[in-house]
């Protein structure tokens, strides 16, 4: 039995969807970011980084979404968590791009005040918006060749992409120029696995 520490709408959503795809036996534990629960001693004793997601496994606590994805892929090798016929290194490269480039831009766009530059909040958001638009233009180009990141079926990189769209839509980011990105989002939303994951997350 795994335990996933998650906050509603946060990037822990990616791990929930992957756990659902694997049909893993897991418990969800809520750590409400909005209530500051991730900074409390109880949670810091589980994840000293004070962030979600954290996955408790029989080997200990695992953090960082790409690492959780790879771990679950190794545990559930028939669950199609990673795409077939793609080198794992290529998938890690793509997951890392989402985790290390896109994700911090989302924080700057959605919560520019968290960056700590109190006088330049609007500028932080505007720069993030420009860089995000450029990133989604390249994603749009990729999705014009196939409906999902690695072909006709969705896998881990699609889940990361789905979460970025979900999060940015809530923050008011305009996706109107990105038809393929929106179609990707709608296809992911229609997936029974994703529906199940979002339902479980909504109970947090
Ligand atoms: N690179 C990490 C990012 C984790 C992360 O930044 N999580 C956010 C939620 S989306 C968080 O816990 N933020 C709380 C904070 O930084 O105070 C991953 O991919 O798991």
Rg (CA only): 17 Å
- Strand content bin: 5-15%
Order of helices and strands: EHEHEEHHHHHH
The N- and C-terminal alpha carbons lie at a distance of 18 Å
Overall helicity: 40-55%
Give me the secondary-structure category.
alpha+beta
**CATH domain class name of the largest domain:** Mainly Alpha
Shape: globular
Give descriptors for this structure:
single chain; 204 residues; alpha+beta; Glutaredoxin; Glutathione S-transferase Yfyf (Class Pi), Chain A, domain 2; 2 domains; four-stranded mixed beta sheet; 8 helices; globular; binds glutathione; Glutathione_S-Trfase_N; Thioredoxin-like_sf; Glutathione-S-Trfase_C-like
Describe this structure in words.
- This protein has 204 residues and is an alpha+beta fold.
- The protein folds into two domains: 2-80 and 193-202, Glutaredoxin (3-Layer(aba) Sandwich); 88-191, Glutathione S-transferase Yfyf (Class Pi), Chain A, domain 2 (Up-down Bundle).
- It has eight helices and four strands.
- It has helices at residues 12-21, 41-44, 65-75, 88-110, 121-143, 156-170, 179-190, 192-202, and strands at residues 2-6, 26-30, 54-57, 60-63.
- Strand 1 (2-6), helix 1 and strand 2 (26-30) form a beta-alpha-beta unit.
- The two termini are 18 Å apart.
- The model has no long low-confidence stretch (mean pLDDT 96).
- The structure holds glutathione (GSH).
- Glutathione is lined by residues 10-11, 33, 38, 50-53, 64-65, 99, 103.
- Residues 10-11, 33, 38, 50-53, 64-65, 99, 103 line the site of glutathione (GSH).
- This is Glutathione S-transferase family protein.
- Residues 1-80 form the GST N-terminal domain.
- InterPro entries: Glutathione-S-Trfase_C-like, Glutathione-S-Trfase_C_sf, Glutathione_S-Trfase, Glutathione_S-Trfase_N, Thioredoxin-like_sf.
- It comes from Alteromonas gilva.
